[in-house]
From TrEMBL, chain A:
Subcellular location field: Cell membrane
GO terms classed as biological process: peptide transport
An example Gene Ontology CC term for this record: plasma membrane
UniProt family annotation: Belongs to the ABC transporter superfamily.
Domain of life: Bacteria
Name assigned to this protein: Peptide/nickel transport system ATP-binding protein
Keyword Transport: yes
Pfam families: ABC_tran, oligo_HPY
PANTHER family: DIPEPTIDE TRANSPORT ATP-BINDING PROTEIN DPPD, OLIGOPEPTIDE TRANSPORT ATP-BINDING PROTEIN APPD
UniProtKB/TrEMBL annotation, chain B:
Record's GO cellular component terms: plasma membrane
Family listed: Belongs to the binding-protein-dependent transport system permease family.
Gene3D superfamilies linked: MetI-like (1.10.3720.10)
One GO term (biological process): transmembrane transport
The ABC transmembrane type-1 domain, residue ranges: 101-290
Stated name of the protein: Peptide/nickel transport system permease protein
Record's bilayer topology term: Multi-pass membrane protein
Predominant place of localization: membrane
Superkingdom: Bacteria
Keywords: Cell membrane, Membrane, Transmembrane, Transmembrane helix, Transport
InterPro entries (UniProt xref): BP-dependent_transpt_permease, MetI-like, MetI-like_sf, OppC_N
Segments traversing the membrane: 31-53, 103-129, 136-157, 163-183, 218-247, 267-290
Compartments (UniProt record): Cell membrane
TrEMBL record, chain C:
Classification via NCBIfam families: oligo_HPY
GO MF terms, alphabetically ordered: ATP binding; ATP hydrolysis activity
Family to which the UniProt record says this protein belongs: Belongs to the ABC transporter superfamily.
Keyword Nucleotide-binding: yes
Keyword Membrane: no
Protein's name according to its UniProt entry: Peptide/nickel transport system ATP-binding protein/oligopeptide transport system ATP-binding protein
InterPro entries the record matches: AAA+_ATPase, ABC_transp_ATP-bind, ABC_transporter-like_ATP-bd, ABC_transporter-like_CS, Oligopep_ABC_C, P-loop_NTPase
CDD domains: ABC_NikE_OppD_transporters
Pfam families, alphabetized: ABC_tran, oligo_HPY
GO terms under biological process: peptide transport; transmembrane transport
Gene3D superfamilies, per the entry: P-loop containing nucleotide triphosphate hydrolases (3.40.50.300)
Domain ABC transporter: residue ranges: 5-249
Keywords annotated in UniProt: ATP-binding, Nucleotide-binding, Transport
Length: 324, 304, 334
């Protein structure tokens, strides 16, 4: 059985301008020790989906199912979700400064976190564990720095503190939402290598939410490409880059700056509004291969290239997609 | 594409300004619209106060010592003649509330207008010019905000004697500083925004940047603050009147009426209740409307 | 031919609230040739954006000199600067922050004409609509407000405004960093087309090496207020000399699993030091796997090293040879 199984997740928000359908039928699963990357541009619904699963979206209309190790998360009572968050599901976000309390020492915050979930752990034991964790994520002189305040750390160091905190109770699942987007590349490389190391050591499952295909190539086992609230393609890492099927995936890769300086091939236009999403395929308006059927009916996510692990939501047949 | 453009006269697509969008959001806000309707009714009441006097046949300052008081000399309760009862001198409470609305609204609007005008000018100057101007104005703001308002007001009125002008000036003098502080803070952050740097990189001078780039962005928070300032001013005016620092009698105003009614709250509930309600409903309506305006102008909506 | 822009030993310092001094740009000399794109890369706090603002004369330099088109503009008067603004323009990073939210797009793009009193009324409007079409915006949207455009379209507005006065030099300060990949490519192509059409010279600033590599003819790499290496683009990537450049290149995630799995990855230790009291000697020696004793005491000059030609200059006492494995040095150092 998979650690996390999400089926047909739908999330919408009421806004003064109308109902925003942020996630429209998302299904995926993650296994222990594996990294699932969720890629998409802004507004694709990638962050909303995981926030909903962990009970962090307020005022949203949610349907579908998300089973975590046998427990249904959607509609679970706040106490259950609170017990799971932190203890069994760790989370790190793009901006570590907003997730750390500015007025408390980081060691104290980690100790409180541990003791909130494991009251039987003594303060001393929790503190030792906090120091070990900080060492583990590569904070130099962790034993001294444990008593520093968040503002005394640089951006990269803060993100490590966040990772230490998220890993404090040895969670089964780590949700990393754009964990390195705010960081410089050399620091990003450090943080990614820490995540990789921790996964090998603890067998944690990771959901990595990112817009950066480079980070995906570095870290993912499996990839989901989201667009306008729906999944366009799901594939093992190498297939996504070398044997992709969906025109949106191909468009994203062709948009990346190349080493040769040849002219880029951008995707024309911009993503559709999620208030009145188009009836057919959401990508139809920007797709170079669009035909009548695409505008009428949204294609389901189906197996392609005869590989059960590889699915694409496109009406094009295998041969046609390759030709593209 | 180019050819077509030249033949067809480019049609005008009218953009929706942040202000238009805010107004539209405001119109959709039911609470704000009901509050606005209540405010409109109060304004109508103030404007047509003489109509109340005419309908009831009771001028606001006429004392009905025979018909308006009980044989014991106490105020009369609401009945067919005095719809909301009478006060301790036998005057019609309803008519006096209507006339009192004139005072409240006049002071509310006049004092707020002075406050906002002075606040914007000084706040802009302090924030944009910076340097010594800013230092002096910022200290001045601090000083004004730390002066004990009531003590000074009492002292001032005891010297000059109570009048409408003094009330407006006193309130205006003590309120501009908070507006100036808001404007100054806004200007300080706007000055660092990239669009101001962009204007500079195009060669724009200080005056142009101040009036074309910064001022329009300051207006939204000022509008919000203004609608929330009106009820504060109205309550302040009522407070001054209640303390005997408002308008000289026999002019009707709500604070003064509540003051006069204090001694009668056990025997003549209508005397204190109706002026109190008038004050409460007015300030509540302005506050709820102000909340609506704030939500409508919420700067986060700019990015939608 | 004189270069379009030349800066010599430019320093820019900022006072902090604690009465310390931030050495944002710390002695940079550089030239930008007519028609080229010079890439400027580096991480947060390396001084690249400050340097750009010094070049555009949005900042006064603390010391050093700036020459534009053969004229010394280091201490130009206000009036001279106004004239300069017509030749040097900036495209800003944040397509949300760089457009005044309360003004119509037509008047934003028309700003340069209004400020310099060039065209008014229907003539200005016509020019603005031509510009809008040039950058791929619908001229019918003349009366719209910035909030009604997507991020990519807003950046096109910024480009149109910068091009209004037909400048010679355009400084692009992270122009695509805030945009999604698919939109980023549209803007990069647009900039390339415009450069070709109007003979523009670009200084292109970015923290994203892959973008800089794509657009630039030459690249200068900055670290803590200094240029550590400058070279023609392919040479910088093919014969990387400075250990910091190499680390930067290796840290860049590549959207290609085979490369990602096989390449040498150098994980630098620690963080970028503060620009308040930068390290002595070579600024990079505190994190450099190859640093020797001399690196902490004296500063390496920016000059050709090993057998490099005059185009390729590196500030390093121990430059990398081709094929040298830096990760081995990293392992040894840690």
């Amino acid at each position: 059985m998979n650690l996390l199984d999400v089926r047909d997740l739908r999330v919408s928000f009421g806004t003064p301008d109308g109902v925003v359908r942020a996630v429209r039928g998302l299904s995926f699963s993650v296994d222990r020790g594996r990294t699932l990357a969720v890629v998409g541009e802004s507004g694709s619904g990638k962050s909303v989906a995981t926030q909903t699963i962990t009970g962090l979206t307020r005022g949203a209309e949610v349907s579908g199912s998300a089973r975590f190790d046998g427990t249904e998360l959607l509609g679970a009572d706040p106490a259950t979700l609170r017990r799971l968050r932190g203890a069994r599901i760790g989370m790190i976000f793009q901006d570590p400064l907003s997730s750390l309390h500015p007025q408390y020492r980081i060691g104290w915050q980690i100790v409180e976190m541990i003791r909130a979930h494991q009251p039987q752990t003594s303060r001393q034991a929790a503190r030792r564990r906090a120091a070990d964790l900080l060492t583990l994520v590569g904070i130099p002189r962790a034993a001294e720095r444990i008593d520093d305040y968040p503002h005394q750390f640089s951006g990269g160091m803060r993100q490590r503190v966040m990772i230490a905190m998220a890993m404090a109770l040895d969670p089964d699942l780590l949700i990393a939402d754009e964990p390195t987007t705010a960081l410089d590349v050399t620091v990003q490389a450090q943080v990614l290598s820490v995540m990789r190391k921790l996964q090998q050591e603890f067998g944690t499952a990771i959901i990595l939410i990112t817009h950066d295909l480079g980070v995906v190539a570095e870290l993912a086992d499996e990839v989901i490409v989201m667009y306008a609230g729906s999944v366009m393609e799901r594939a093992p890492r190498r297939d996504l880059f070398y044997r992709n099927h969906h025109p949106y995936t191909q468009g994203l890769l062709a948009s990346l700056p190349s080493q040769t300086g040849r002219r880029l091939t951008p995707i024309p236009g911009s993503p559709p509004s999620l208030i009145n999403p188009p009836r057919g395929c959401p990508f139809a308006a920007r797709c170079p291969h669009v035909f009548d059927r695409c505008r009428a009916v949204a294609p389901p996510l189906v197996e392609v290239y005869g590989d059960t692990r590889h699915q694409s939501a496109c009406w094009l047949g295998d041969g046609e997609a390759v030709a593209a | 594409m180019t050819a077509i453009m030249e033949v067809v006269e480019a049609p005008q697509i009218q953009g929706r300004s942040p202000f238009t969008l805010a107004m539209r959001r405001l119109r959709r806000d039911k609470v704000a619209m009901v509050s606005l309707a209540v405010i409109a009714l109060i304004v109508l009441m103030a404007v047509f106060a003489p109509v109340f006097a005419h309908l009831t046949g009771h001028p606001p300052n006429e004392q009905y010592r025979d018909t308006g008081l009980t044989p014991d000399g106490l105020p009369r309760g609401p009945d067919g003649t005095f719809w909301l009862g009478t006060d301790d001198l036998g005057r019609d409470v309803l008519v006096r509330i209507a006339y009192g609305a004139r005072v409240s609204l006049l002071v509310g609007v006049a004092a707020t207008a002075i406050t906002v005008a002075v606040g914007i000018v000084l706040g802009l100057a302090a924030g944009f010019l910076g340097g010594i101007v800013d230092t002096v104005l910022a200290r001045l703001i601090d000083v004004v905000l730390s002066v004990p308002f009531l003590l000074v007001a009492i002292a001032l009125v005891s010297v000059t004697g109570p009048s409408l002008t003094i009330t407006v000036l006193v309130i205006g003098f003590f309120s501009w500083a908070s507006v100036a502080r808001i404007v100054r803070g806004q200007v300080l952050s706007l000055r660092e925004r990239e669009f101001v740097e962009a204007a500079r990189s195009l060669g724009a001078g200080d005056t142009r940047i101040m009036f074309v780039d910064i001022l329009p962005n300051v207006l939204a928070p000022v509008i919000v603050y203004t609608t929330l300032l009106v009820p504060v001013v109205i309550v302040t005016q009522a407070t001054l009147s209640f303390l005997g620092l408002g308008l000289p009698p026999p002019t009707a105003d709500w604070g003064g009426m509540i003051n006069e009614a204090q001694a009668y709250y056990t025997t003549a509930w209508w005397f204190i209740l109706f002026p109190g309600l008038a004050l409460l409903i007015t300030t509540l309506a302005f506050n709820l409307f102000g909340d609506g305006v704030r939500d409508a102008f919420d700067p986060r909506a700019d990015r939608s | 031919m004189t270069p379009l822009l030349r800066i010599e030993d430019v320093h820019k310092e900022f006072p902090t609230q604690r009465r310390e001094v931030v050495h944002a740009v710390d002695g940079v000399s550089l030239e930008v040739r007519r028609g080229e794109t010079l890439g400027l890369v580096g991480e947060t706090g390396c001084g690249k954006s400050t340097l750009a603002r010094c070049i555009a004369r949005l900042y006064d330099v603390t010391s050093g000199s700036v020459w534009f088109d053969g004229h010394d503009i280091t201490s130009s008067s206000r009036r001279e600067l106004r004239a300069l603004r017509r030749s040097v323009q900036v495209i800003f990073q944040d397509p949300y922050g760089s457009l005044n939210p309360r003004r119509r797009v037509g008047s934003i793009i028309g700003d340069p004409f209004a400020i310099h009193g060039i065209a008014a009324g229907p003539e200005r409007k016509k020019k603005v609509q031509e510009l809008m079409e040039l950058v791929g915006l619908n001229p019918e949207h003349y009366n719209r407000f910035p909030a009604e455009f997507s991020g990519g379209q807003r950046q096109r507005i910024g480009v149109a405004r910068a091009l209004a006065l037909r400048p010679k030099l355009v400084i692009c300060d992270e122009p695509v960093s805030a945009l999604d990949v698919s939109i980023q490519a549209q803007i990069i192509n647009l900039l390339a087309d415009l450069q070709h059409e109007f003979d523009l010279t670009y200084v292109f600033i970015s923290h994203d090496l892959s973008v800089v590599r794509h657009v630039s003819d030459r690249i200068a790499v900055m670290y803590l207020g200094k240029i550590v290496e400058v070279a023609p683009t392919e040479e910088l990537f093919g014969q990387t000399r400075h250990p910091y450049t190499r680390a930067l290149l290796s840290a860049l995630p590549v959207a290609d699993p085979d490369t990602a799995d096989s390449r040498e990855q150098i994980i630098l230790a620690g963080d970028i030091p503060s620009a308040v009291g930068p390290p002595t000697g070579c600024r990079f020696h505190t994190r450099c796997p190859k640093a020797g004793a001399v690196c902490g005491s004296s500063e390496p000059p920016l000059e050709p090293v090993l057998d490099d030609g005059p185009e390729h200059r590196t500030a390093c006492f121990f430059p990398l040879t081709i094929g040298e494995n830096l990760s081995a040095a990293v392992l040894k150092a840690s």
